[in-house]
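hiii so um. not sure if this is the right channel but i have a protein structure encoded as tokens and i wanna go backwards to a sequence. like what aa goes where. can anyone help
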């Protein structure tokens, strides 16, 4: 047990970003959504199905070498005449290499910050002052799903990404095994949201994920996900959803109401 806890500890990223705290920044928008659907996370055109097309590219402290992919943020602009107090909820799908703004968002997300009828006025501003914080992603009608990447080849190479990941967590490890077998192979993060292994168990496959939760982490076990004849390009339902919330210790941290 001690060994297991130690392992979990090592797998957890250092909690430095404190992205659940309220941050002050500026936000810019992409005039087209194309950069986001070819984003660093590797969601491709599926990105447009995440968060209703309200997407964000984030600086590396939020992108976290891919661990931030799929995270949700609430952003509101600070001009109460133009913008609503609820702001816009966005899903992270890309890395923003320019550090002038913490986030660059899709124009749809940008306009969603506006008060009713003011969306064009907000758009005209271009860059606006905002505050933002991480929030739980809510996929009420979708389970956590596993997409088998096009680069996969049954039975030798398996690359996957997770879609529709609820809650406010980061996946820090993924293992795969044949359904019913205790012989787990670990997967490695290849890039963005994509994990892979060339030690692919045969048969139908189960997964276990280590996610950040509370102040440490926990295993989430999806007992039957891929059929034996899994195919590149297909999306498979994990049969579960994540609702955990990670609480990195950050202080001071305003994470309350705004
Ligand atoms: C955005 O997220 C917040 C916090 O989870 C939630 O209260 C709010 O209803 C969401 N807004 C929309 C438009 O979904
Ligand atoms: C465990 O799984 C790996 C990868 O599928 C395989 O190479 C290995 O032979 C398996 N070991 C046992 C004891 O079944
Ligand atoms: C989610 O998984 C459960 C099984 O755990 C299943 O009953 C349900 O239909 C799935 N929901 C969706 C929206 O696919």
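sure thing!! here u go:
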């Amino acid at each position: 047990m001690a060994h297991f806890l130690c392992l979990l500890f090592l797998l957890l990223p250092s909690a430095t970003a404190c992205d659940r705290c309220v941050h002050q920044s500026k936000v810019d928008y992409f005039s087209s959504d194309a950069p986001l659907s070819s984003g660093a996370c590797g969601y491709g055109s599926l990105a447009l199905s995440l968060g209703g097309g309200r997407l964000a590219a984030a600086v590396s402290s939020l992108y976290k070498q891919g661990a931030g992919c799929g995270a949700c943020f609430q952003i509101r602009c600070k001009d109460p005449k133009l913008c609503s107090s609820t702001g816009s909820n966005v899903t992270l799908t890309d890395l923003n290499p320019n550090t002038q703004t913490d986030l660059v968002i899709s124009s749809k997300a940008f306009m969603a910050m506006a008060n009713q009828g003011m969306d064009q006025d907000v758009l005209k501003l271009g860059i606006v002052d905002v505050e933002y914080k991480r929030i739980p992603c809510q996929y009420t009608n979708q389970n956590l799903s596993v997409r088998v990447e096009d680069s996969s080849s049954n039975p030798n190479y398996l690359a996957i990404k997770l879609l529709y990941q609820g809650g406010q967590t980061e996946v820090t490890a993924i293992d795969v095994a044949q359904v019913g077998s205790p012989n787990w192979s670990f997967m490695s993060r290849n890039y963005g949201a994509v994990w892979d292994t060339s030690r692919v168990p045969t048969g139908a496959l189960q997964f276990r994920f280590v996610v950040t939760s509370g102040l440490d982490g926990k295993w989430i076990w999806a007992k039957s996900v891929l059929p034996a004849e899994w195919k590149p390009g297909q999306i498979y339902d994990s049969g579960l959803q994540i609702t955990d919330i990670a609480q990195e210790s950050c202080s001071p941290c305003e994470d309350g109401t705004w």
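oh and The radius of gyration is 19 Å.
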